[in-house]
Specification:
By secondary structure, the chain is α/β, with parallel strands linked by helices. It has three domains: 27-246, Alpha-Beta Complex (2-enoyl-CoA Hydratase, Chain A, domain 1); 269-428 and 466-496, Alpha-Beta Complex (2-enoyl-CoA Hydratase, Chain A, domain 1), CATH 3.90.226.10; 432-465, no CATH class. It has helices at residues 3-18, 23-31, 37-44, 104-120, 139-155, 175-179, 197-204, 210-214, 216-223, 233-246, 269-272, 283-290, 335-350, 368-373, 375-388, 403-408, 432-439, 441-446, 450-465, 469-473, 486-496, and strands spanning 51-53, 76-83, 86-93, 124-128, 161-165, 168-170, 182-186, 191-193, 228-230, 297-299, 307-314, 317-324, 355-361, 393-402, 418-421, 426-428, 479-480. The strands form three sheets. Strands 10, 11, 12, 13, 14, 15, 16 and 17 form an eight-stranded mixed sheet that branches. Strands 1-2-3-4-5-7-9 form a seven-stranded mixed sheet, sandwiched between helices. Strands 6-8 form a two-stranded parallel ribbon. It binds hexanoyl-coenzyme A. Residues 98-99, 101, 131-135, 142, 145, 168, 170-173 line the site of hexanoyl-coenzyme A (HXC).
Length: 514
C-alpha cells in the first residue's frame, strides 16, 4: 500500500471511531439535553488544542456475546490539550457507547491519562457520564475502578483533580469524584448516588426520584459532595476554566500571578460591617472589599453557608479565603461548616496557596443534635487543618471571636503568622450575656433588681473583656487596625510571607480526625 493509501486508511478508521455510539445514540444524548463527550472536551479546552490517545482501543471481553460487539474507543475519550495555553490531561466518558459503562480497557485508558497527569505534573479533568461497572465484564470492571481510585489517591495533593458529573455516576463509580479536589454538577443532568431509586425502594420501601436522591441540587446544598453548581453545561465549563485561573498546575509551583488592581468602589469596607455584634452582614462583601478587582470565586456556595470559602487574589497572588458568615446562623462552626473549611484549608496548604481568615463568630454550635452528629470530631478538623498548614496564614478578627471558635479560626496559638483585629473585635471565652449570667449568677439573683444588675454586669464584662485590647496586651493580636487599612495591611503581610519556611516533625503522615 502506498503512503497515501495508508493515510487514507487511517483517516477512514478515525472517521469510524469518531462516530462513537452512532447517530441514534448521539440523537438520544442530545434529546437528554446533553453534549457528547467530544463536544464537552472541545468546549473546555483551548480551540483545536485537543490531542486524543487510544482512539482505537477496543474491549477484549468475550462473554455474553461481547465478541460480536464493537465499542468505539471502549466508551471513553482520553487526551491532552491546553486551557489558557497551559497543558492539562482530560478524559470524558462517552455515554453513546455502551452507556459509558466501565470495562477493563475503558478503565485502562483512564488510568493511562491519570498516570500522564501525575508524571507530567498537570491538572486532571475527568468527565463522568456512565452506567457504572460494565456488567458483562464482571470483576474486570471492579478492578478497573480500583485502579482509578488508587491513582486518585496517589495524585491527591500533587496535581489538582477536577471531576465533572454530566450524566449518571452511580454505585462505586462515585468514589473517584469523591477522591478528587473539586466536583462540578449541572442541574437536571448530574445524577450521583451509591444506590439508585430501585434499590432504595426494594430495601427501604421508599419511593424517591433520581433527582431527589442524587441530583445536582442535593449534592450542592445537602450532602456537600459537589463544589460547583451550574444551570447548563456551558456555565459549568466556564466555572472549570475560572477555577483553573486560581490554581497552581501542581504542588511544586505557585499559581500564576495576575496583575493586581484595586477592589471595586462599591465594596466600601467601612459600610459593610455594622458595629453592633448582633447585626448580620454578608462577609463575602468584606472579601470583595480586600480582594483584587473584588473578584471572588466561592467554593461550595450553597452547602454549610455559615462558613464561606473560596479563591481570590491579593496583590496578584491567589489566596484561599475562609470566613465566618454572620448572615447564616451567626457564622457558627458546626459539623458541616467544619468539614467544609477543614478540607478547603488542606487543599490550599497542599497547593501553596496562602490563607486569609476573616473571623466573626460566637463559637461552635451547641445542642444534642450537633453532639450526636459528631461536632467534636468534625470540629477538630478545623483545628487540625489550620495547625498542620504551613502556607502563610493571616487572620483578621472583625467582631466576635469567642471560645473554641477563637482558637479554631487560625489563632496565634495554631501558629497564625499575622493576627489583626478591628477595634470592634470581641475576644473572650464567651459572649458578654452568657459570661455575665454565669460568673455573676449569685450577685444577679440576690440583687434587689436582678434585671438591672444583670445589665450592669453584662456592660462591665463587655467593657473589660469584649474588646481586642486584652488579647493585644498579651501579644496574641499583633495589631489592632482600622477597617479601611485592611487591604493595605494584607498586601504587606502576603508580601512579607512570600518566602515563609517552616520545619515540621518527621512523620509518615498525620492522622486527621476524618
Ligand atoms: C453495561 C450498560 C450499563 C452497564 C448502561 N448500559 N449501563 N451496559 N453495563 N452498567 C448500556 C445499556 O444496556 C444500553 O445499551 C446503553 O448502555 C444505554 O443505557 P440505557 O439504559 O438505554 O440508558 P438510560 O435509559 O438513559 O439509562 C441510563 C442508566 C441505566 C440509568 C445508567 O442504563 C442503568 O441503570 N444502568 C445500570 C446502572 C448500574 O446499576 N450500574 C452498575 C453500578 S454498580 P444498548 O445496547 O441497549 O444501547 C457499580 C459498581 C462499581 O458500578 C464498584 C466499584 C468499586
Amino acid at each position: 500500500m502506498s503512503l497515501k493509501r495508508n493515510v487514507l486508511d487511517l483517516r477512514k478508521r478515525k472517521e469510524i471511531a469518531l462516530q462513537g455510539g452512532g447517530e441514534e445514540a448521539i440523537k438520544k444524548q442530545a434529546a437528554m439535553g446533553k453534549l457528547t463527550a467530544r463536544e464537552r472536551i472541545e468546549a473546555i479546552l483551548d480551540k483545536n488544542s485537543f490531542h486524543e490517545y487510544d482512539m482505537f482501543v477496543e474491549h477484549q471481553a468475550k462473554d455474553f456475546d461481547m465478541d460480536k460487539k464493537v465499542f468505539h474507543g471502549d466508551g471513553v475519550i482520553i487526551g491532552t490539550g491546553t486551557i489558557y495555553g497551559e497543558p492539562v490531561c482530560i478524559y470524558a466518558q462517552d455515554f453513546t457507547v455502551a452507556g459509558g459503562s466501565l470495562g477493563l480497557m475503558h478503565a485502562r485508558k483512564i488510568s493511562k491519562i491519570m498516570d500522564h497527569a501525575l508524571k507530567m505534573h498537570v491538572p486532571l479533568i475527568g468527565i463522568n457520564d456512565s452506567g457504572g461497572a460494565r456488567i458483562q465484564e464482571g470483576v474486570d470492571s471492579l478492578a478497573g475502578y480500583g485502579d482509578i481510585f488508587f491513582r486518585n489517591t496517589q495524585a491527591s495533593g500533587v496535581i489538582p483533580q477536577l471531576s465533572v458529573i454530566l450524566g449518571p455516576c452511580a454505585g462505586g463509580a462515585v468514589y473517584s469524584p469523591a477522591l478528587t479536589d473539586f466536583v462540578f454538577v449541572v442541574d437536571n443532568i448530574s445524577k450521583m448516588f451509591i444506590t439508585g431509586p430501585e434499590v432504595v425502594k426494594t430495601v427501604l420501601g421508599e419511593e424517591i426520584s433520581m433527582e431527589e436522591l442524587g441530583g445536582a441540587r442535593v449534592h450542592s446544598e445537602i450532602s456537600g459532595n459537589a463544589h460547583f453548581f451550574a444551570l447548563t453545561e456551558q456555565e459549568c465549563f466556564e466555572q472549570i476554566k475560572k477555577l483553573l485561573t486560581f490554581l497552581p498546575w501542581s504542588n511544586r509551583v505557585k499559581a500564576r500571578p495576575f496583575p493586581p488592581r484595586n477592589p471595586r468602589a462599591e465594596y466600601n469596607i467601612e459600610k459593610i460591617v455594622p458595629a453592633d455584634p448582633t447585626q448580620p452582614y454578608d462577609v463575602r462583601d468584606v472579601i470583595r472589599a480586600v480582594a483584587d478587582d473584588s473578584d471572588f470565586l466561592e467554593v461550595q456556595q450553597a452547602f454549610a453557608p455559615n462558613i464561606v470559602v473560596g479563591f481570590g487574589r491579593i496583590h496578584g497572588e491567589t489566596i484561599g479565603f475562609v470566613a465566618n458568615q454572620p448572615r447564616v446562623m451567626a457564622g457558627v462552626l458546626d459539623c458541616d461548616s467544619s468539614d467544609k473549611a477543614g478540607r478547603f484549608i488542606r487543599f490550599c496548604d497542599a497547593f501553596n496557596i496562602p490563607l486569609v481568615t476573616l473571623e466573626d463568630m460566637p463559637g461552635y454550635l451547641p445542642g444534642a443534635e450537633q453532639e450526636y452528629a459528631g461536632v467534636i470530631r468534625h470540629g477538630a478538623k478545623v483545628l487540625y487543618a489550620y495547625s498542620e498548614a504551613t502556607v502563610p496564614k493571616i487572620t483578621v478578627i472583625l467582631r466576635k471571636a469567642y471560645g473554641g471558635g477563637y482558637i479554631a479560626m487560625n489563632s496565634r496559638h495554631l501558629k497564625a503568622d499575622f493576627m489583626f483585629a478591628w477595634p470592634t473585635a470581641e475576644i473572650a471565652v464567651m459572649g458578654p450575656e452568657g459570661a455575665a449570667n454565669i460568673i455573676f449568677r449569685k450577685e444577679i439573683l440576690s440583687a434587689e433588681n436582678p434585671e438591672e444588675t444583670r445589665k450592669a454586669k453584662v456592660a462591665e464584662y463587655r467593657e473589660k473583656f469584649a474588646n481586642p485590647y486584652v488579647a493585644a496586651s498579651k501579644g496574641y493580636i499583633d495589631s489592632v487596625i482600622e477597617p479601611e487599612e485592611t487591604r493595605k495591611i494584607l498586601i504587606h503581610a502576603i508580601e512579607v510571607s512570600s518566602n515563609k519556611t517552616v520545619m515540621t516533625p518527621a512523620k509518615k503522615h498525620g492522622i486527621p480526625p476524618f
